[in-house]
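To start, an entry.
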Amino acid sequence: MGAVAEPGQGITVEELALATRNRGMPLEGLHYEVTPVGMHYLLAHFDIPAIDPAAWRLRIDGDVARPSQLDLAAIRARPAHTLRVTLECAGNGRARLEPRPLSQPWLVEAIGTADWTGARLADVLSEAGVKSRAVEVVFTGADRGIQDDIEHDYQRSLPLADAMREEMLLAYEMNGRPLEPQHGFPLRLIVPGWYGMTSVKWLTRIEAVSQPFTGFQQAEAYRYQQAEDDAGEPVSRIRVRALMIPPGIPDFFTRRRFLAAGRVVLTGRAWCGSAPVARVEVGVGGRWAEARLGEPGGSWAWRGWSFEWDARPGEHTLACRATDAAGNAQPTSQPWNLQGMGNNLVQEIAVTVR
């Protein structure tokens, strides 16, 4: 992990290949309180598995009293719970860093909010009888590949206390219909409040373990590092962020915005994985003013906001920044880390008012 682009180096062929496999949500998708499935951001580390649902089984084992294998019908037979959850990729904003970490070149669109339906993870773990010596729960997906010369299944873990939280879901539906293959069919984990890498897709195994998990995607990837020899801190909860729907109409190539002079209502959404959003401000040419917050969309979903702007002819830079209830605000100067994680730099939009 940790390769960075040379000064002035453009997007590489490898980054372009990743960008064509994965996708961000177009920012006009912020219009929707619940993101349509086809607009929700997508990241698949390796190949999207082709899974036969009739043959698929979820293995639950490790430090449990009652190991089991469950088919999809057995998961669906449990009480169903639906949560509206905003998911964001931990690498969102990576392409804006300088120097640029070489990986999926996200701008700010790696985001989406969906209604996820499934069984509570805590109920399944309780039925399995997790033993007292267990400290973590490891989740294994069906996707397998090589990263940094290490061949592995995609795996992540959660501390047992977090895994037992009531909002953790084993989801089989997204927006009221079965998961699409690219979103984890037939079953995926949903971990509200955490960056998306934790919500393991294409689940095949849940294992309770008595020692902290040290697999690649836990111990090497998804770390806040400043250098290769820095062990760094693990990436976990989503940092506070606001995004604005670009106003007006775009230039095809530059995406610069054009709109007519007059009263313009700027809108967007804000979210945070560790504390509620407390305020959103809008900046016009570096001068900040308070936006109006909409009603909360739920404990784990983004929140709408709006701001009335008297758009006068000329060139303008619009920005928005959110602050959470703990006092954490988005930075206005560029933070940096080696893997390009958790970059919640304030969004800026260039606008021409005619």
